Amino acid sequence: MPFPVNVFANADDFGYSASVNKAILFCFENEYINSATLLTNTPGFEEAVQITRDNQCVKNIGIHINLAEGKPLTNLGEAFLNADGCFSLQKTGKASGFFTKAEKLALVKEISAQINKGLSQGIAITHIDSHYHLHTLPGLFNLFLHAAGQFKLKMRLAQTYREGSYLKFWYRQYINSRITARKLNYSDRFESVNHFLSRGLFYNGEQKTEVMLHPDFDPAGTLTDHFDAETMVSWLNYLKQLHKG
């Protein structure tokens, strides 16, 4: 069920769990997606790597850098962790968070470790993004931009459509201009499935658009999006319409 060649349908959270891995493979096999990003500090990482090695349809694999949950790969220190030694999203995900030089160095080391863990598996890594879009935050953006340049990887843009605050939209335009100026952008646009579909987009010239999904199987065995179930329903309906056309 192919879709326009200028669309990257990316599955986030590859490696999160066995059910997510199974769902992402299913989506690749059925051409519901053509890209995915891999978590390297979660229980399903090794299985996701093996799935990638064993299945030629699994392609365009990136690293889904995770500073939001689970344990870090490096000795990050307590500044970003909870009492259990896992990432605290409250500490890393503050929109206005700015960090000391030592904290930035620790975060750079962790980001690099997660990328290197993916690269060490012999997988052709193409791009990076982040769990909960932390790479777009003011205190973290430059660290991710540096990592993308250092490892010569493409990077997910911030959302490219206006939603609510004009200030947020301006900020996202600004950081996206910095990504594209270095030719590190993975696409020309980054949109939610719902916004992508709201524009009635079947083909958009030469612009490349990335849309994001979170495939999983629910307890009944139905393919879903574990972040927003309606997203998967809408995406599959869109693909059916394309196939009929």
From TrEMBL:
Is Magnesium tagged as a keyword?
yes
Task: List the molecular function annotations (GO) for this entry.
Answer: deacetylase activity; hydrolase activity; metal ion binding
Under the heading SUPFAM superfamilies, the entry gives: Glycoside hydrolase/deacetylase
Q: Name one Pfam family in it.
A: YdjC
What domain of life? Bacteria
Q: Which residues form the signal peptide?
A: none
- From its record, what is one biological process in GO terms? carbohydrate metabolic process
Query: Keyword annotations for this protein?
Result: Carbohydrate metabolism, Hydrolase, Magnesium, Metal-binding
Transmembrane stretches in the record are none
List required co-factors: Mg(2+)
Q: Which InterPro entries match?
A: Glyco_hydro/deAcase_b/a-brl, YdjC-like
Q: What is this protein called?
A: ChbG/HpnK family deacetylase
